[in-house]
Amino acid sequence: MDYRRYFDQAIGRLRDERRYRIFADLERTPDRFPEAVWHPDSKGGAARNVTIWCSNDYLAMGQHPEVIAAMTEAAQKYGAGAGGTRNISGNNHPLVQLEEELADLHGKQAALAFTSGWISNLAAIGTIGQLLPDCLILSDALNHNSMIEGVKRSGATKQIFRHNDTAHLEELLKAAGKERAKLVVFESLYSMDGDIAPVARIAELAKHYNALTYVDEVHAVGMYGPHGGGICEREGVMDQIDIIEGTLAKGFGTLGGYIAADANLIDAVRSYAPSFIFTTALPPAIACAAQAAVRHLKTSRVEREGQKQQVALTKAALEEAGIPVMPNPSHIVPVFVGDAELCKEASDLLLEEHGIYIQPINYPTVARGTERLRITPTPRHTDEHIRALVEAMTTVWAKLGIPLFEPVPAHAIAFGPVAAE
Q: Three-state DSSP class for 261?
C-alpha cells in the first residue's frame, strides 16, 4: 500500500480549498513587541521587520519585565523541567502557589492547573460528565473544539442550544427535569465573533433547574473584571458559576490552563482525569511566571485600560476607512472577508507588501463563507501602528476588490497616550 499517497491527498485537499496553512517564522523579542523579525526563507527574501496584529498575548504580559524575571529566577532556582507527572513526581511548590492564586482570583475553594486550556476543557468536562449519573450536557452551539471534545470524551448525552439563546436553553433544561444531573457548558467570550454570553441569565436558569454551570473564560481572564477574573467577575456572578475554566496563555501571557471550583470537584477531576494523571506537570519556571502575571493583573489596571483604548481606536479607524469590522462589545476586532481564497491573499499581501502579520481565519474555525481576519490590539500597539494598519488594509482591499462598508460619518479619532489611571 502506498501510504504516502493518502497523506499527500489530504494535504492536497487543503491546498485546493485554500485552507493550507504556512506558519510564519517570526522572531519576537520583549523590547520590540508587537514588532518582530520575519524570516521568509521559503520566499527567498531577507529577514525584515513586521508588526504582529493577531497575537493572543492580549495584554503583552508575556513581554512584561516582572513575568520574565519570575521565569528566569525560577529556572535558575528550580531547573528547567517538572520532573514528570504530579502523581509520580509530586507537586512542585510553585505550582501549588499558582493554584492558590487562581482559586483566589475566582473566589473558589481550589484550582487545578493543566498543560493547556485545551487539555483543561477535555479533562474537566470529560471527567465531570463521566462521574455524574445519567448526565445531560447542554452545550452552546459555538463552543470551542476543546469543549466539544470534552463532551465527547464524557460519554454523556448532549444537547446543543442555539448560540447565546437563553430561551432555548431554558426549554432544554425544563424538558430534562430538575432531578436529572445536568451540566451547562458555554464560553463567556467567543473569540471569533467577539460576542459575550449572558452569563448572569445562564447562571440564573441553571440554578432554577438544578444544573451545574461550566464557563470557559479563556479569552476574558486578565482582561475583564476589577481583578482580571473575567466576564463573570465583571458581571458579579463568579459565585453563581460552579466551574470556571481559564488559560494562562492569553491574557496572562504564559502557558497552561486551569479550572477553579469547589474543592471536592477539583479533587475528583485530579483523581480521575487521564489527561491530568498521565501528563507531565507545568515546570516551576512557567508556574512562577504565570503566578507573577496573575498577581500583577489583580491590582494593575494599566494594561486593561491601555488595551481598551487601543481596541476602541483600532475599531473606529478601520470603520471610518470602510473596512468591514464585525461589531461586538469585546477586545476582538474581526474583519469580514467571506471568501477563503481572498482571505489568504489579503493576509499574504499584508505581510509581504506592508509588513503586517494577521493570520487568515478559515473553515473549520469559522463557517464557510464567513472567513475573516482577526485583529487583536494590545496596549503596546501605538497610534502609529494603527495608522499603518488602516493604510495597509485599505490598499489591500482595493487591490483585491474586497467590498468595503460605507465609511462611517467622519468623526474625530482621539489618537493620544493611554489615559492615566
A: strand
* Per-residue cell: 345: 491573499
CB neighbour list of residue 107: distance below 8 Å, 6 or more residues apart: 229, 238, 239
pTM: 0.93
SS3 label, residue 282: coil
Q: What is the pLDDT along the chain (421 residues), one digit of tens a residue?
A: 999 999 999 999 998 887 888 889 999 999 999 999 999 876 567 899 999 999 999 999 999 999 999 999 999 999 999 999 999 999 999 999 999 999 999 999 999 999 999 999 999 999 999 999 999 999 999 999 999 999 999 999 999 999 999 999 999 999 999 999 999 999 999 999 999 999 999 999 999 999 999 999 999 999 999 999 999 999 999 999 999 999 999 999 999 999 999 999 999 999 999 999 999 999 999 999 999 999 999 999 999 999 999 999 999 999 999 999 999 999 999 999 999 999 999 999 999 999 999 999 988 889 889 999 999 999 999 999 999 999 999 999 999 999 888 654 444 444 443 332 2
Catalytic residue among 108, 182, 250, 344: 250
User: By C-alpha distance, which of 128, 101, 87, 130 is closest to 266?
Assistant: 128
Are the C-beta atoms of 23 and 37 separated by less than 8 Å? no
**Whether residue 174 lies in the annotated active site:** no
**186/171 Cα distance (integer angstroms):** 16
